[in-house]
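haha ok so turns out i had the wrong file open the whole time. this is the CORRECT one, sorry everyone. sequence first:
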Amino acid sequence: MLAMAIVLMSMVMSVAQTASPGPATGTQMAKKSAASELKNFKPDPANPELSNARLSLLQSKADLEKGISNNSLSENDIKNYTRRIGLIEAQVQNLSTASTKATQPTAREKQMQSNARDQIMVELKTSNKLTRSQFSSLPVADQKFALLNNVTISDLVNASPAMLRTMQEGTLIVPVANFKSSEVEKQIQILNNPSTSLITEEAIAPSIETTVQPEPGVKTHTITRAQLNSMSPDLQKAIEASGEFVITE
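then structure:
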C-alpha cells in the first residue's frame, strides 16, 4: 500500500505539465504539486473544452495527492483515482491534438498559400499593381514591401454610394490624398479593414465633416451645395437619400 502510494505520488508530481503546459522545463514542473498547479491554473477562453478537461485533470490529481498525503484513501480509492486520471489524460491529449490540427494548416494548405503568395508577388514585380483582395491575402511583411514600392491598388477607392448610405457610426472616411500621405502602417490598417475604413476620391474629401453636436435625429454631417454638385450623380443621390447630411448654401 505504501509503495503504491509513493509511486502514485511520483506520477502525479511528474505529469502535472500535461494539465497546465507553460514555459517552465519538465524538471521545474515536476517540483510543483498538483495543488499548486491547480491554484495557478488559467483557462484558455479560445478553447473552453480543453481548458475544462485540464482543470478536471488537475483537480483529480490534487485530490489524489491530498488523499495519499493524509492517508485518507483506501487502496480501491487510489485505483479509482488512477483510472479516472488516465481517462482524463487521454481526453486532454485528444483535445490538444485536435486543437493543434485545427489551428495548423496542412502541408497541402501551406503549399497552396505559398503558391498563391508567389503568384501575387510575381504580379507585383511585373506590373506593380494589386487588387485589395490580393493585397489583404499577403503577410504583413509583403504588404509593407508592396506599399514601400509604391504599389497601385486598382480598386483603392471603396466608398460606394451604398456604403456611404449605410455606414455605421465610427466609420473612418479617408480621402485618397490623405491615404497616400499616411504612414505605411496606417495604410495597411486601412486596407485590411475595408468595412470600417472607406477611401473616397479627393473631390469628396471636404464634403464629409462631422458637426459638433447635431440635434437628435439622423443628420450628422454637413456639406455645401457646391461640394454636392461637384460629385457624381449617383453619389449626390446617395447623400441626399441618406438623410444624414445637412446641405448648406
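The chain has three domains: 2-103, 105-154, 156-249.
again sry for the mixup
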